[in-house]
Specification:
The chain has one domain. The protein contains 3 helices and 2 strands. A two-stranded antiparallel ribbon has the order 1-2.
Length: 57
């Protein structure tokens, strides 16, 4: 993955996504009306999958 400078640290793109997703509550993610969330199958952690889907919007 491409690395980006963030707060004087090297973080991967995935870490940037996780940082952004941490601002969402799990309940908000569950209430989101995203039908294709199950298509994100490359990650075993369902919460991370939710975040990735939110990020793509």
């Amino acid at each position: 993955m491409v690395d980006y400078d963030y707060n004087n640290e090297k973080k991967t793109c995935f870490q940037h996504i996780w940082i952004a997703c941490s601002r969402f509550l799990y309940l908000e993610l569950r209430l989101s009306k995203i039908l294709w969330i199950n298509q994100v199958s490359s990650f075993s952690d369902l919460t991370i999958s939710h975040c990735l889907v939110i990020w793509k919007i």
